[in-house]
Write a structure and sequence with these properties.
The chain contains 18 helices and 21 strands. By secondary structure, it is α+β, with helices and mostly antiparallel strands. It is extended and about 105 Å long.
Length: about 550
């Protein structure tokens, strides 16, 4: 299946879309202000070691410290730290202030900092270099075992005698010649020497190696034999990518083309509309069914609904066909939205086990085209499909959207009637406390319309509910004030008459305690009438301390 790669480049942002048969399959966005960190190699400094979590926080020069788990320490996985197969405790491997060579394997996501590893890997066009691990691996996409062994032997013959590291052979190396492999090996070894030299010169924290830009990564990782053309709408970006392609990917240089049409590149190919659809909860299927996709902090849930589709021979056939179509749509939405982590899919319930198995197979088949690793489990007892997809970068929604300040990301707000009743309660509270002459209500038009129409009578009734000047509550409040004054005077006189002049006399403690206890009871009774209950405990703290001291007397 042929594909086109569209590159929309501006000074502040680069957007890449992979289009197959007119449909957008992948979207990648990189902004200059928030460029991704995955692949960067840094000289970090251990800021904190957490033995209880077997983790450490590493300062790599970001606003938030990065996270390193003991499982991501290359020393621990090698088993050389303690001579066995189990990793040594992290507190025996790291200490605060220690400089450490690390690589970012996950960008900061939400409130979480970047995820790090001490096993460095440097990606090239044909190979991935593992300078610390003398292992030679082959991409899992190359399934023929004979071909895998042939590639290993070819690479081993080309390695220098002094090479102590290892390599992973990428899919693009299948058709590569020996000269291309040797050039990639030399490039990766040179990069590693530069990183080592920088780690000796620089002081932590420091950036030693930055991953390629989005456009360059697209040429390296996405473009392949199926790529018919790479359209770039910026002459500057085209020149940069052409130079990169001539140096590292000569086969792709001829497929780079300048787009100079009048209509924007993404608009012409319908990508802008796909971005808008990818930011909504609902995804309509061609048959009339639809998906509801909700992304939360812990997981992503996808619900499949038949909607207006009634085209099956019977009810079971309708459900089965909807689920089959949904499986392909789900795989595409995961790629376009860059959703990762735990994903729960609620397909429409199917009575036939054969239908369930076919839907699973179709989902796995659709996910096989995904460049990001994923795994699909079977149907659970509740009829849900559990799956995971590797998450290294922010999703499209997290990149382009922010939580609504009104609903705080819940997706729901209070009804106008609920707000009306809250305002009425607040007016009553304020009226009891301050006895104001008037109130001014500032609210949305929907709330104001309710006050002028349906809720006009309760609002007007509040004007008649103002406390009269002879309110008996005022008399109780005055009595409480006088009781507090009496308590203060009696307490002060008792202290003056005592031997030390600081504490009340023991013979006066019982009477003072009675006065303080009654004052505290009156405070609790009167407070809830005039005020919100939230400040009652703070208001009564002094009286409680007085009662406690008198009890000790």
């Amino acid at each position: 299946m042929t594909e086109e790669i569209l590159v929309n480049h501006t000074a502040h942002e680069t957007r890449v879309a992979v289009v197959q048969q007119g449909a957008t399959q992948e979207l990648h966005i990189e902004r200059a202000a928030t460029r991704g960190l995955v692949g960067n190699v840094c000289l970090g400094k251990v800021s904190r070691v957490l033995p209880g979590m077997q983790s450490a926080f590493i300062d790599i020069g970001l606003e938030r410290a990065a996270f390193l788990h003991v499982a991501d320490l290359w020393q621990s996985r090698s088993g050389s730290a303690n001579g066995g197969g189990h990793p040594a405790p992290i507190e025996k491997l790291l200490f605060e202030g220690q400089p450490l060579l690390v690589q970012v394997i996950k960008d900061p996501l939400g409130t979480k900092g970047a995820r790090l590893s001490t096993q460095i890997s440097i990606a090239g066009r044909l190979l991935v270099y593992l300078p610390q691990d003398p292992h030679i691996g082959v991409s899992q996409r190359i399934e023929d075992e004979a071909e895998r062994q042939l590639l290993r032997s070819r690479l081993q013959k080309l390695l220098p005698a002094d090479e102590k590291g290892g390599f992973i052979i990428r899919t693009s190396a299948e058709e590569a010649g020996e000269a291309e492999l040797e050039a990639d090996i030399a490039y990766l070894r040179r990069r590693w020497r530069q990183i080592l030299d920088g780690s000796r010169r620089e002081s932590a924290p420091a950036l030693l190696y930055q991953e390629l830009s989005l456009g360059q990564r697209v040429l390296r990782d996405i473009a392949g034999d199926a790529t018919a053309a790479i359209l770039v709408d910026s002459p500057e970006a085209l020149a940069e990518l052409s130079e990169f392609a001539r140096t590292y990917m000569p086969a792709m240089a001829g497929r780079l083309r300048q787009y100079s049409g009048e209509r924007p590149l993404f608009e012409l190919h319908g990508v802008e509309g796909e971005i808008a659809k990818a930011l909504s909860r609902r995804v309509d299927l061609k048959s009339g069914g639809y998906l509801i996709i909700d992304q939360t902090e812990a997981m992503t849930t996808i619900d499949v609904n038949t909607g207006g589709y009634i085209g099956g021979r019977n009810f079971d056939d309708t459900i089965f066909r909807t689920n089959l179509e949904a499986a392909h749509a789900i795989a595409r939405q995961l790629r376009v939205r860059n959703l990762g982590g735990i994903i729960i899919v609620d397909f429409i319930d199917m009575a036939s086990s054969e239908h369930r198995e076919q839907v699973l197979q179709e989902l796995r088949k659709a996910l096989a085209r995904d460049r990001t690793k994923s795994s699909v489990n079977g149907f659970t007892s509740l009829g849900l499909v559990e799956m995971t997809r590797k998450r290294t970068r922010e999703s499209l929604a997290h990149l382009l959207l922010e939580p609504c300040p009104t609903c705080e990301g819940k997706g729901q707000v209070k009804t106008a009637r609920t707000v009306c009743y809250e305002i009425l309660r607040e007016i009553q509270r304020e009226a009891r406390q301050f006895n104001p002459r008037e109130f001014r209500i500032v609210a949305s038009q929907d709330v104001i319309d309710l006050f002028l129409e349906e809720e006009a009578q309760p609002l007007a009734a509040l004007g008649d509910a103002r406390p009269p000047l002879g309110d008996p509550l005022i008399s109780d409040e005055l009595d409480h004030t006088l009781a507090m004054a009496r308590l203060a005077i009696e307490h002060g006189l008792s202290c003056r008459r005592s031997a030390d002049g600081l504490n009340p006399r023991p013979e006066d403690a019982a009477a003072l305690r009675t006065l303080a206890t009654q004052a505290l009871a009156d405070l609790r009774r009167l407070w809830v009438i005039r005020n919100r209950p939230g400040g009652l405990d703070q208001a009564g703290d002094h009286l409680r301390r007085v009662i406690g001291s008198l009890s000790r007397e």
